[in-house]
């Protein structure tokens, strides 16, 4: 199964801006990989909360559309809230 997530590039980085994004129901994330420049992104929480429940989400290649450009990625790490069903941050690696 293929998954596609719509995202926007982030210009503000840091703890304060990440908190503001989370309060606005957004998920801050980063895409990185060997030989490529890391890209900070943000997407809606509702876009990932349901698809991350599937097993193949963690093993398959995902497509993230960053400002109109398709990027193939895999999930490297995901931070979740301690007791709420909220995803706080996702690390993706280029596929």
UniProtKB/TrEMBL annotation:
Gene Ontology annotations of biological process type: translation
Keywords: Ribonucleoprotein, Ribosomal protein, RNA-binding, rRNA-binding
Highest taxon of the lineage: Bacteria
NAD keyword on record: no
Organism: Shewanella morhuae
GO molecular function annotation: 5S rRNA binding; structural constituent of ribosome
InterPro entries noted in UniProt: Rbsml_bL25/Gln-tRNA_synth_N, Ribosomal_bL25/Gln-tRNA_synth, Ribosomal_bL25_short, Ribosomal_L25_dom, Ribosomal_uL5_bac-type
Domain Large ribosomal subunit protein bL25 L25 as annotated: residue spans: 5-92
Keyword set includes Endoplasmic reticulum: no
Coiled-coil regions listed in the entry: none
Pfam family, one: Ribosomal_L25p
Protein name: Large ribosomal subunit protein bL25
Family: Belongs to the bacterial ribosomal protein bL25 family.
Function: This is one of the proteins that binds to the 5S RNA in the ribosome where it forms part of the central protuberance.
NCBIfam families: PRK05943.1
GO CC term, one of those recorded: cytosolic large ribosomal subunit
Quaternary structure annotation from Swiss-Prot or TrEMBL: Part of the 50S ribosomal subunit; part of the 5S rRNA/L5/L18/L25 subcomplex. Contacts the 5S rRNA. Binds to the 5S rRNA independently of L5 and L18.
